[in-house]
């Protein structure tokens, strides 16, 4: 996926351009309101609806202070997924330099989700959701800016925002699945989804136009990366277990996806990022892959008929 960072409402993504208070709300069980018009960021309201186990998780988990890069809600990134960014604004190039030379090629990709808050002022409010720790895999300098290839490593929760200018930074902790399952249960589902993904990959390659070489599909790329048990130069607590990584690998667009199919994928990705049960996500992903296998098989049948006519 190629993304050029140019947003229709720059004040949402650049605190320095805000002329009025804009609230940013942290996601999930701890809700924190932040004001972009003040620095440093400060919490003005908190809803600590956490059970004891969750509190222990927040207290004991390792934290990192990293640059944060916001995206619209329709651009969530999941672990194992790749994305190519075209960075050209000075603030994003400064973030890139910080990540490359001071943060071990790491930053956090997250989305801003518009939310409804009973606020008579009518000011815009957003939730900072679906954080994903990413590693920079490749940088290609351009005449204007740079093309940056990134890879999702694991989910990350933004604890607090530390800096607003020239780009956002904050403290983040890993967000991993917390429902226990036997190794036998997980291994069985992992084998099932790997086989399904390989079948899908074979069909997708056949669907490609003849002039396109037998390219590796996005799902195959994610699966291959997950199987390497990647260990970027960061705290290992941010790297999900293998079964959890593989559970995200299916959430990639297949060749020739329509707009409606991409919208369905987006909903699947949002649900997958919310789930905290590896087995549940594996089962969801297996069902999604089977649907895609049927879909691609149908497209192949139509392609075959067209070639005979």
From TrEMBL:
Residues 66-293 form the Lon N-terminal domain. It comes from Nicotiana attenuata. Signal peptide: none annotated. It comes from the Eukaryota. This is Lon N-terminal domain-containing protein. Pfam families: LON_substr_bdg (PF02190). SMART domains: LON. InterPro entries: Lon_prtase_N, Lon_prtase_N_sf, PUA-like_sf.
